Prior knowledge:
Chain A has helices at 3-9, 26-30, 48-51, 60-64, 91-98, 117-126, 138-145, 154-157, 189-202, 204-222, 234-253, 280-299, 370-382, 386-393, and strands at 18-21, 23-25, 36-43, 52-53, 78-79, 85-86, 102-109, 148-151, 176-179, 260-266, 306-312, 332-337, 345-347, 368-369. By secondary structure, chain A is an alpha/beta fold. By secondary structure, chain B is mainly α. Chain B has 3 domains: 61-111; 123-303, no CATH class; 365-482, no CATH class. Chain B has 26 helices and 4 strands. Chain B has helices spanning 11-21, 29-33, 37-46, 61-90, 94-104, 120-138, 143-154, 166-174, 182-190, 193-198, 210-215, 222-231, 241-250, 292-304, 306-320, 327-339, 344-353, 355-359, 368-379, 387-396, 414-417, 421-432, 440-447, 454-461, 466-474, 477-480, and strands at residues 254-256, 268-270, 280-282, 285-287. Chain B has a two-stranded antiparallel ribbon. A two-stranded antiparallel sheet of chain B has the order 3-4. The chains are: A alpha/beta, B mainly alpha.
Amino acid sequence: MSPHAASRRQLLLAPGTLFAWAHLPKLAQAEGRDPRFLTIILRGALDGLATVAPVGDADWLAVRGDNALTLDGKTPALKLDDFFALNPAMPNLHRLFQENEAIIVHASATPYRERSHFDGQDLLESGLPNPGPSESGWLNRTLAGLVPAGRVNPRGSRLFAVGPVTPLVVRGPAPVLSWSPQRVMPASEDTVQRLLALYRDCDAKFAGVLEDNSKLGALQQSGGMVQKPGPAGPAQVRAYFAEAAGTAAKFLAQADGPRIGALALDGWDTHFNEGIAQGRLSQLLGTLDEALAAIKSNMGTAWRETVVALATEFGRTARINGTDGTDHGTATVALLVGGALKGGRVIADWPGLKSVDLYENRDLKPTTDLRAVLKGVLRDHLRADERVLAQTVFPGSEAIKPMAGLVG
Amino acid sequence: MGANGVPSSGKNAAALGLHRFGFGPIGDAITAIAADPRGALLADLERPGAGRLDTPNLISSGEAAREVFDFRAERRAQQKLALRLQKEVATGGENQAQTMAEAVQAPGSDSGASPLKVPLPQQIILGEAKARFDAAASADIGFVERLVWFWSNHFCVSADKDVAMVGAYEREAIRPHVLGAFADLLQAVESHPAMLLYLDNVQSMGADSIAGINRDKGLNENLARETLELHTLGVHSGYSQADVTSLAKVITGWTWIRPDDPAHGGEFVFVRRLHEPGEQTVLGKRYADGGLDQGRAVLGDLARHPATAQHISEKLARHFIADDPPPTLVTNLTQTFVATEGDLKEVARTLITSDESWAAPRTKLKPPAEWIAGVIRLTGTQAQIPIGRIMNAQVALGAPLWRPPAPNGYSDAEGAWMDGIPRRIDIATEFAGRAPHADPLALLDSGLGPLASAQTRSTIAHAESRSQALALLAMAPEFLRR
């Protein structure tokens, strides 16, 4: 084993890891552009209505009750337009939106219409029309369809590992590199809460340790104490992910660094005590928001040529369930940010929130196919071929036309 | 059914046996051994070469000590040369400086290599750690490997004292004897340079020995005390300070050849010049001065001592079965130990064939490294996770490999590891992230089978992602405890 290979294998392949194409896209470069594209997969099913609230919908309060974000609530939502407002945990995304560098596509969904995370995530990442085994993901097949213009700088790419295990979205024939922070990513609060519930049922001693630990974590946060290794908590996940995303942006910004990459952030499965304005979801959205700010700031001048696409496997129920959370749903939001966008818009063919308007009388009804959004970005930003997009990247999606006018 | 209504076959007993005595199931092991779990464990003891590692690329402790000595000497020379070079440049002697720069870069020196090159001592320990961990991760059951880990911890040394030899020590002194006679194990351990260095015997000399008289130096009783207190009889078993002092005198002269000796540096040697002359009395028995043989004789008697049998049996039962082990099991083990004069394979057989070993509730918390090995076997991520990450995880959980805080090794009590449970969630999450192909529900069946509670099944089935499901499985009480 050469020392070089050994050091590359030291790298971690887990959430917070950047996966990047080893080549530069030739066609876009030939036009004198140098586009950057980053996708962030949000696993666990993001509550689109709690992220971007339809405050202008007359049925909004009836659906969400006390949990509805409003412009005059205790923590007021951030106004986007006359109809939609953003979760207050995302001031950076709000600023990007006002600067025309963010697009929100609401009531969007993949073609998946059932409610299993595992299948939903497979489909989100594979780009296939139906759940089922897949050996490759849509981003990798996009790369495989692009003409490469030489490898990224080997000096820069030494920081990357050629990973044997990558998330499905970037798995496939095109060579992919990966980089991640050396530190271990703290487990998500969601994982900790699920274990706490299990331990309370089955192992009181373990439950006690987790409870004590979260108390200690809260104490550290409230006391403004210096973070030490030990109790993980939302604040640590936040710092970790912002650092990971910011470093990913630095790589993409380098003149001869990678151009196309993927990250993932898990923990969005908010079945109980969702904490929309304050609490778990708020923390997670804040984590994402800080990461977006870090990406913009570290992209430097390359931000002008950047698109970041954020997508989740499906949305959550329109109504709040019996435990102050939401269950698995259907349509949700897709977020696009970046200096290359024609932003400042919420794109939505709004389906409405009356019972009859909901999908199966429970979920926000999907009116925009997520594939149309992604195909629009991939075609207009990376110059991916439309026929390849319809047949190879998202097979069987000829009828789903790329959404025009997102970029430029 | 065995005696006392303890099931001796079936998936339940199979899963219990794999977790309690091995490193947890791998593949379809639960089904494979369900017909006769005890037989499968006993068969693990009969494999040819059981306990040994087939790793021709690993070097002996002596070679390691010499190579690390040379490596450090060379590095010191380079640093000194670089410093001289700086001074030369500052005073304007450029030609001279150029020549020296070339000398520093000369072939054969390490300075021309990539800055990413791992320094030799770390390379050695990474290689040793990988061989050890691979053996645990790939074993069919891993009962014998668990015994290796047990004995290595019982007779622990620390890389903080000497990084070159810790890995080789385990291969040379521990592994060949884990299914042999305890007396041979004890002799191998107490005369290994890694142990002599760790517990300071290399500095010890008889006050009345030739070297002691010439240098006005004397005893260091560290190794003698721990041999009695930790390695054999156990604390409060009736030995006195006089016994400690006598044993210390007995083993003066047990030392190593300093590693600057190019032929035999780092190897064991008995140096009569350091040895306290004369007869010594240990535990009421007089030992004539036969040089090295005096110490061999005392160790032989300590290995046969009933207190040693009791001490070892209790420790084994505590490690494998429960923090507070069933007294009848300890009695069984002790009887076997005494009757066979410490035949460790027979003692291991008794551990498996005693119903008490199977009847005890699954309350024992797996210590960190054992749990990590179990997670890697469960997720099939042996090839995906570099040994450096595994060692980092052990550090994060407070159990760095071959670096115990004290000569009594890592604790076997639940209380020592409970605080690390939240950190295990992070590690489970990281490792699970490396197995995106895994099917969590299938792994639930192959990893826990009938041991999984309804709550655990439901928690895993409702996870938000496959990798979360896998992390939850690794953190299920039934997977953490055995």
